[in-house]
Specification:
Blueprint: E1 5-10, H1 14-35, H2 43-48, H3 59-74, E2 82-83, E3 86-87, H4 90-107, E4 112-117, E5 120-125, E6 134-138, E7 146-151, E8 157-164, E9 173-174, E10 179-180, E11 185-192, H5 195-208, H6 210-219, E12 224-229, E13 234-236
Antiparallel strand pairs: 1-4, 2-3, 4-5, 5-8, 6-7, 8-11, 9-10, 11-12, 12-13
Length: 245
Amino acid sequence: MGTVFSLDVRGGEPGAVRAALDEVVAGLHRVDEVFSTYRDASQVSRLARGELTVGECDPEVAEVLELAAEAERTSEGWFSTTYRGRLDPTGIVKGWAVERAARHLAAAGATGVSVNGGGDVQLLGAPGARRPWRVGVSDPLRPGGLAAVVSAAGADELAVATSGTAERGAHIVDPRTGRAAVTDLVAVTVVAPRLTWADCWATAAFAMGSRAGLAWLESLPDVEALLVTAGDEVRCTGGLAARLG
């Protein structure tokens, strides 16, 4: 998927956890093979060209497309799986794959799981007694600095996802125009229980811009967010402060 994945796993029976880790790594490679838009032979590329039907693809393809359709409905079209008129579920696949990997490790008996895919993180359980997971949010305007630190204290599951221009430039598309989103934002970080949705909501809110994006994120249940504008203004949802520390 063109990025680095890291896994931090605590507790559980070592043999079972090691086997689950091997399965997760193989599964992430398989996701890349199936969903990559850069591989001409991937199922998603063949689906986009009309060479396959959804029913002929792995079951995960239908699962992801159904989730993406739900994200599109919830965001009123600001999240989309179409790029320049072509099927492209990239905006949801990474978050879904990371969350799925984390849940597989927890199901194998791990008591604390952190899976990081290119800076988007799914957290389950805790790293130790009275020790919550904590995730630093990069400052998009000050390389090497932090804009905030998110704590998972009191939460059995928490995800942190960021969309913006700091790492990859202007790559987020406005679905209405098919071109790079024209927005006052440089980054949106979303905190929610599930990374599948946090990743989608960060992308959609970035395309909306700071005012509409913040208002929309405030309307979503169990979602908090931090938005940074190009003018170095920081805007937050009302409940974000309870997740910082």
